[in-house]
Write a structure and sequence with these properties.
Elements lengths: L1 H26 L8 E3 L2 E6 L2 E8 L11 E2 L3 E9 L9 E7 L15 E8 L5 E8 L3 E10 L5 E10 L3 H25 L12
Parallel strand pairs: 4-10
Antiparallel strand pairs: 1-2, 2-3, 3-5, 5-8, 6-7, 6-9, 9-10
Helix pairs in contact: 1-2
């Protein structure tokens, strides 16, 4: 019985370690709900074509980030335009603070805007900029492509900056799991004495 319990506890501990490792890996780059990912690069899709987005922390790390940027301060974002045709189409970039509630992208977004680059051509196929994020938070990136017929298409990607609550959830769950494991082992090692049992001596 004890061997079976120990095996169960070991399996649970292994699952918890995998959860924490997965969380750490996501901090180095993961996919947001509105963006796909490839390695540590997010991407927004316009049909079958994509624009890659990679973030860096200058002076703090050489790593590349995607959905979760682990520290506040200066962040460099690089947009790589894969389709040569897109280089002849105006592209608008806007970064807003994510209110974490549904928003109307056609409404006035100025009160939420952190960074805004009006539509222009990027003939080199690359756009990069540096922005200072002084506080932790969730953000929403909007990439708007103006097609040859004048039609505008906007794709979005989400990312967080700093140690947001959701990044701590796996560690909190891991701590709870360890506590439950210790409690289960203690109860197994200290079975309750039968009611009315007399001490021997």
């Amino acid at each position: 019985m004890r061997t079976s319990l120990l095996r169960s506890l070991a399996a649970a501990l292994g699952a918890m370690m995998l959860l924490v490792a997965h969380s750490s890996a996501k901090a180095e780059g993961g996919a947001g709900p509105e963006a796909m990912s490839m390695g540590n690069m997010c991407m927004v899709m316009f049909g079958y074509d994509m624009i890659h987005i990679t973030s860096y922390l200058p002076g703090k790390s050489r790593s590349e980030y995607c959905e979760e940027i682990p520290a506040t301060g200066k962040v460099i974002m690089v947009f790589d335009i894969e389709n040569p045709k897109f280089r002849d189409m105006p592209i608008e970039i806007r970064i807003i603070r994510d209110p974490l509630t549904p928003i109307d992208l056609t409404s006035n977004l100025d009160p939420l805007t952190e960074v805004h680059f009006p539509a222009k051509l990027y003939k080199t196929g690359t756009l990069s900029f540096e922005h200072d994020y002084p506080k932790d938070g969730h953000f929403l990136g909007l990439v708007t492509l103006t097609k040859d017929n004048g039609e505008k298409e906007t794709q979005t990607f989400k990312f967080s900056v700093g140690a947001t609550f959701m990044q701590w959830v796996p560690f909190i769950l891991g701590g709870v799991l360890i506590g439950l494991m210790v409690l289960a082992y203690w109860k197994h090692s200290h079975p309750a004495k039968p009611v009315g049992a007399e001490p021997t001596g």
